[in-house]
Amino acid sequence: MSGTPVFTKNAAPPAGPYSQAIKTPNAIYCSGQIPCDAEGNLVEGTIQQKTAACIANLKAVLEEAGSSIEKVVKVNIFLTDMANFANMNEEYAKWFVHKPARSCVAVKQLPKAVDVEIECIALP
């Protein structure tokens, strides 16, 4: 099965040689989004603000692919410090009220030395 690359100028540009998402007939696989604006500038502030920036990027990518946040079925979150877990969840809950399946793991380091990265899978 092959997929169609998705790109939108309304989300952070990829930090490497990959697509923002791949759309298949059955699912949209979004690459991890870090807290950047659409020009690629890192978002500073609280973990809540950084989480919101990641999810806003996912939302823009999903909309470009013809889907939406409400159609997300799986989310993977990467944090560099689990001390940020509760505050990240506070912001996350505002966006994912339908409570998709989710994993959240601590990692040693993320691209561009950010604190959080979020990826997801959605239905078309």
TrEMBL record:
InterPro entries linked to this entry: RidA, RidA_CS, RutC-like_sf, YjgF/YER057c/UK114
A Pfam family the protein falls into: Ribonuc_L-PSP
GO molecular function: deaminase activity
CC terms in the record's Gene Ontology section: cytosol; mitochondrion
CDD domains with a match to the protein in the record: YjgF_YER057c_UK114_family (cd00448)
UniProt superkingdom: Eukaryota
SUPFAM superfamilies, A to Z: YjgF-like
NCBIfam families the record matches: Rid family detoxifying hydrolase (TIGR00004)
Family: Belongs to the RutC family.
Protein name according to UniProt: YjgF/Yer057p/UK114 family
